Amino acid sequence: FNIKPIDKVFEYSSAIVSTHSAKFLIISLYRSPSADITIFFELLVKLLTAGYAKCSQIIICSDQNINLINYDRNTNTFLDILSSFNVYPTIDIPTRKSKESATLIDNISSNAEYDNAEVLECGFSDHMAILLTISVDSSIKKDEDWVLKRVYSNHNKRFFYNAIKTETWNSVYQSTCTNTKYDCFVGILQYYFQTAFPLKKYKSSLYTAKHPRPWITPEIRTMSKDLKDQHFLWKVTGNRDVLINYKILKKKYCRIIDKA
């Protein structure tokens, strides 16, 4: 989220957890007792607004240092903000006890259906633990398969051609060492190539149930991409060294294909 945490005033972290049957936005939230509560409320509204746009089921694990047992203006404001997003605290008994007092400053608030919420004595803190139980399909939602590809569109090709055409190649001409000349030439060429044809992430259709291709290993996919890149470079530049590299890579690629 584009909401910057503020030390002691509004400290938070968040994650979206998905299963086959549900998706939850889980927020961990903290405010120190002496922090500006007005800023805390303002940022809480912004966070919940942004969060609700991404995920309708929200779980807030908070130590907001607002005593929900003591009904005052801050308590009412906090509960009003939560309820405006249909989010409500799940705990209504003290979570921090001492000889002098008992307060409810920790909570798990949510708008998701849950089975049980309870306060547990953890034994190593003056705050008690809170356990919220929600029944969902525990199967983890499988991520889509993705591949990295370069797009050789006419627009990208024109960009690459113009970049090569306008390059001065000064570093190549000024060098007196043949190896350095070659390194400079390849470095410049690769820079424009990577700029014109950057690797982009696309959904893969290689492992769909309709078109399974288990023989296409990650090594084969990577080498195929490199082979296409080298061939394109050779066509554009006509450089003999690029052609030699392309032929060597092609022989290796064919051997791997034969083994697969």
TrEMBL record:
* Entry's transmembrane regions: none
**What range does the record give for the signal peptide?**
none
Q: What is this protein called?
A: Endonuclease/exonuclease/phosphatase domain-containing protein
